[in-house]
Amino acid sequence: MKWSLRVPRRRWMVPVFLGVAALALAGAFMINVVDEYSDRSVLRARGQQVTATVTEVLEYNRSDESLEVRAALPDGRLVDVDFAASNQLGTKVGQPVQVTIDPGDLLVSMPTDQLNNGQSFASNLAVNSGPFALFAIGCFVFTFIRARESSRHADT
Length: 156
Fold this sequence. Notes:
Blueprint (H helix, E strand, L loop, with lengths): L6 H4 L2 H34 L1 E13 L5 E7 L5 E5 L13 E7 L2 E7 H4 L5 H35 L1
Helix pairs in contact: 2-4
């Protein structure tokens, strides 16, 4: 029994798989940006700005600054706040933070300065998912060109 690999016919699989992976990453970024955009819309429409007190740090970044905290609202309810794109990064337990919350759903909350920082939906979408989408398109175009060249050489 002799086994042989048909390497020339399977070379197209690498760029196709890379393209599919890049499209999946672009899709994940797009979902994240669309979700944040909808949260911003809700908070701008019916959000309330409150001063909350940090009760617990949930996550630190590499610089050992608080990235996500749990804060107590004036009425005693707790809310988780993510400071990834906020100027309040690095707050400590006991410090006050400015938070905009949706009174009906405390899962929709954001630091007030992050809500008002002026980033647009289109710029976030382009910055986060654009490179992956362009890479995916490049992989598929490369695969198409290689397939055409291979078929030309096979016909001769």
